[in-house]
Each structure stands twice: as C-alpha cells, then as structure tokens.
TrEMBL record:
Membrane-crossing segments per the record: 61-80, 137-160, 167-184, 190-210
Membrane topology of this protein: Multi-pass membrane protein
Main location, first listed in the record: membrane
One record GO biological process: GPI anchor biosynthetic process
Listed InterPro entries: Plno_GlcNAc_GPI2
Protein name as it appears in the record: Phosphatidylinositol N-acetylglucosaminyltransferase subunit C
Pfam families referenced in this protein's UniProt entry, alphabetically: GPI2 (PF06432)
Length: 234
C-alpha cells in the first residue's frame, strides 16, 4: 500500500486562462475548458446607423462630384470657344479672392487634406485639355483654373463644414442645383446621367448600407487580441 501511494502521480492543477503564460503542466497548448465561451459577446460594437444621418453624410460625395462636373463643363465650353481667355481669367480671379478669405482650422495639424494621387491626376487631365487650346493665354487660364479648383475646393468645403453644417448643406444643395442646370443646358442625356448618379449616391447607397447592417454578425471573445489601455506614444 505504501508503494502504491508513493507511485501515484500528484493531482493535476486546475487550468487557468492566462495570456502569455506558456504551457500549463498536464494540459495541451490549445486546451480550453467549458468556461471558454462564457466571455463571448455578439454584435457588441456594431453601430446602428440612421438613414437620414447617412444621407446627410453622403452629401459631401455629391459635392465633389459636382465640382468635377463643373470643371469638365468649363473645359468643354473652352474647347468649344464659348468661353474666351478673358472670361477664364475673370473666373480665376474670383476664385482666388474667395479662396484667400478662407481660414482653415487645423490645416497645419492635418496637412493631407487632399490626396496627392487625385491632384496629380487632375493636373495631368488639365495638361491634356490645355494642349488643345489655341493660345498661351488660354493655356495659362485653364491651368490656373484647374489648379485652383482641384487644390482649394476640398479645403474650402472642409472649412465650410467645420464652420457650420447647415451652411455646408445649403452650399452643397446650391452647388448641385447649379451644376445640374448647367449640364441640362449642355446636354439632356448628361443631365439625366448626373441626376441619376446623385440620386444613387445620396439615396440608394445609404439605403443599401442600412439594409446591409441587418446582416452584420460580429463575435468578440477571449480569443481577440489584447488592446492597450494607454497611449504608447507618451
């Protein structure tokens, strides 16, 4: 009896759920017990979005689409000799005056307000258009106009939105109405396409986003990676 008692193995210690604790004696490295799924949480961080809020946020996208459409309209009228160099220079001067009055809060803290890729693409497109113009003054005017719009328009819209969201909505709606009216005078089919695009961006896409949220299924539990509760940059 004494030999049997001496040869018996010590009782196995209870498994503990510890992070970076290494292998525990008597248990496999991937061992889990019945308490593993007790900490499982479903859809804990899923954000329930409001349809109106998403539609209002999508106005900014339509704003940029209208800005691009207006630039294309100016290019089209210039190539068609509807706008001369004096008219373009007048538009450039008006834009320069309006942009010089805008003070952007936090620009130095966030210098990447515009994407370098989009700016480079717009400059390349402007150069291609300018190569079709008859005079150097035309080229200077269209290049200055394109640079002013593509460089400063995002900054101006950003400042307006930071200053007042209501003013941002009024500005965006006015911009969309003006763009649609100019496109309508140019071509009816282009007007229908632009109007359909704006409806798709402002109504259809937000509706799809809200509907897709119903099928979102998120699982969180003890298997998730640890999150720091302090800032490592301090």
């Amino acid at each position: 009896m004494e030999n049997l008692a001496g040869n018996s193995s010590p009782p196995r210690s209870r498994w503990r759920k510890v992070a970076y604790g290494g292998m525990q004696p008597g248990y496999d490295d991937n061992h889990t017990d019945e308490s593993f799924l007790e900490g499982m949480v479903m859809n804990a961080s899923v954000v329930k979005r409001d349809m109106l809020k998403v539609m209002l946020d999508s106005v900014s996208i339509s704003e940029y689409l209208c800005i691009v459409a207006l630039v294309v309209l100016v290019w089209t009228y210039t190539l068609g000799s509807t706008l001369d160099e004096n008219s373009l220079l007048f538009i450039d001067a008006s834009l320069l005056v309006s942009e010089s009055t805008v003070k952007a809060p936090g620009v130095m803290k966030n210098p990447a307000l515009t994407s370098c890729i989009s700016v480079n693409a717009s400059v390349v497109a402007s150069v291609f258009i300018a190569s079709r113009l008859p005079s150097r003054l035309h080229v200077f005017a269209i290049m200055l106009f394109s640079l002013q719009v593509f460089l400063f328009a995002p900054l101006v819209t950003y400042c307006i939105k930071k200053y007042s969201f209501r003013l941002h909505l009024c500005f965006s709606i006015s911009l969309m109405a003006m763009t649609l009216s100019f496109v309508y005078m140019l071509h009816r089919l282009l007007f229908v396409l632009l109007l359909s695009l704006l409806v798709f961006v402002n109504i259809v896409c937000p509706y799809w986003l809200i509907k897709i949220q119903e099928y979102k299924f998120e699982i969180n539990g003890p298997w998730d990676e640890a999150k720091l509760c302090f800032d490592i940059t301090d």
